[in-house]
Amino acid sequence: MITSFKDLGVYKESYELAIIVNKLCQKLPMYEKNDLGSQLRRCSKSPPANIAEGWAKRRFEKEFKVHLDKSLGSCNEMEVHLSMARDLGFINKDVCNGLITRYIALGGKITNLRNNWKTY
């Protein structure tokens, strides 16, 4: 039974990913911590925050979907930032590829929620 945004699988997954990404950012070179690191940290926090905010406004269909769309956009953005970190050699290739795969799957789940939100 879903009684809170914390019960949503998309929230749980996005929160877990944000924690992983924020820990990985500690391993970035000092000169990247304020640039790419900042982008990764802020972007990773967007999906769970927007899911939570959207859930609070779910009785307004358009508003709820706007927040889910923002979450989806941030998942796509994370693909870019993680690819950049991987290709610049800052984060292990396999770790980045695994995270990218998870963000792609999360984007699909968010899209599913957006399209079927009344059944949740």
Describe the protein:
With 120 residues, the chain is an all-alpha fold. It has one domain: 23S rRNA-intervening sequence (de novo design (two linked rop proteins)), CATH 1.20.1440.60. It is built from five helices and no strands. Helix 1 runs antiparallel to helix 5 and helix 4 packs antiparallel against helix 5. The termini are close together.
Distance between the termini: 9 Å
Secondary-structure-based class equals mainly alpha
Radius of gyration from CA coordinates: 15 Å
User: Number of helix segments?
Assistant: 5
The major sheet is characterized as:
none
Low-confidence stretches: none
| Annotation, overall tally of beta strands | 0
What is the overall shape?
elongated
CATH top level is: Mainly Alpha
Oligomer: single chain
CATH homologous superfamily label: 23S rRNA-intervening sequence
What would you say the CATH architecture is? Up-down Bundle
Order of helices and strands: HHHHH
Query: What is the total domain count?
Result: 1
From the 3D structure, determine the CATH topology: de novo design (two linked rop proteins)
Strand content is under 5%
- How much helical structure, as a percent, in the residues? over 70%
Mean pLDDT: 94
